[in-house]
Amino acid sequence: MVDSLYFINNLQFHMGDIRNKEDLEKLFSQNKFDAVIHFAGLKAVAESMAHPFRYFDNNLIGSITLYQVMAKYNCKKLVFSSSATVYGQPKRIPCVEDFELKAMNPYGRTKLFLEEIARDIHAADPEWKIILLRYFNPVGAHESGKLGEDPIGIPNNLMPYIQQVAVGRLPELNVYGHDYPTNDGTAVRDYIHVMDLADGHVTALQKLFTKEDIGCFACNLGTGRGTSVLEMVTAFEKASGKKIPIKFCPRRPGDATEVYASTDLAARELNWKAKYGIDEMCRDQWNWAKQNPWGYKKPTTK
After folding, report:
1. Do 9 and 2 touch, CB atoms closer than 8 A?
2. Through-space distance between the first and last CA atoms of the chain, rounded to whole angstroms
3. The model's pTM
């Protein structure tokens, strides 16, 4: 096992735009890459409903440009950041990778289209090895409290929204939909700790280099358990000791009722299983929040 300090000391940062082929050409011409982990995509369901062209431009055009440059420089191993939104509102749960795919919003459809594009690329050139990781709902922070999520503006995701209410940056949590056919009326999702998600990428990357006949396949990364919005609020209140004021709002268009993962394929193919539950997710999120109540910025003062 290589010491993590090796990676930290050998990291390079290059500013560029995934949609700009010149940026990618410069990067690939100056470095020899064995594989790519592709995270570069916009990811907010509500934003995609309001601004679909923004998502088509960034997620679709950017990814196609990346794949073209990868092919030119003979880099044909890819771990792609897909999403559980490709399942839409599944007819049954847990979601299994061979379910019918039917995304309910532009964001999810870009992920679905990009999965199909990846399959077409592999079909045309079997040298490609591609693993499509369908994330469920990543939350939490590094246990050190030094690395966490700091979205700009009103958060689009539940956990950073709860966190900002807990530290006083926002007055209350807007809960979108309280009339779903679930135990408490709020939507149910499969939340996965970001450190479990990181481990999933490491095992996927290792798989690309240890098995010849990978082809192109999709794999869920989740815990296999569903948690409602109100259950997550309760868990965060317990971890933080803070009361989270709630305002119930109408459902958001494009949101599903209940989605959680089958994790059998990840266990079998990647030898991966989530280690953490919502208590650890909330514990680590709060550890980040109380050390960094204003994220990576200082509070603005007049």
Report:
1. no
2. 50
3. 0.92
Residue 149 identity: E
* 273-300 residue pLDDT tens: 999 999 999 999 999 999 999 998 876 5
Task: Give the model's pLDDT for residue 301.
Answer: 52
- Is 107 a catalytic site residue? yes
Using CB atoms within 10 Å of the CB of residue 243, give its burial: 0 to 12 exposed, 13 to 18 middle, 19+ buried: exposed
Is-contact 151 160, C-beta < 8 A? yes
For tokens 């923004």, the residue is 54
From the list 152, 181, 148, 153, the residue with the least C-alpha distance to 283 is: 148
Q: Edge to edge, what strands does the sheet with 77-83 contain?
A: 36-38, 77-83, 129-135, 216-221
The neighbouring-strand residues paired with 135 are 83, 221
Tokens matching residue 226: 């569903």
Comparing CA positions, the residue from 81, 82, 63, 71 lying closest to residue 127 is: 71
Can you tell me whether residue 59 is helix, strand or coil?
helix
Alpha helix (H) residue ranges in the chain: 4-9, 21-30, 45-50, 52-55, 62-72, 106-124, 158-166, 194-210, 229-240, 264-265, 278-291
Which entry of 107, 135, 191, 260 is annotated as an active-site residue? 107
| Joined tokens for residue 269 | 């193919």
Query: Cα dist. 24→8, 10, 109, 211, 261 in Å?
Result: 23, 20, 25, 28, 34
Distance CA 49, CA 46 (A): 5
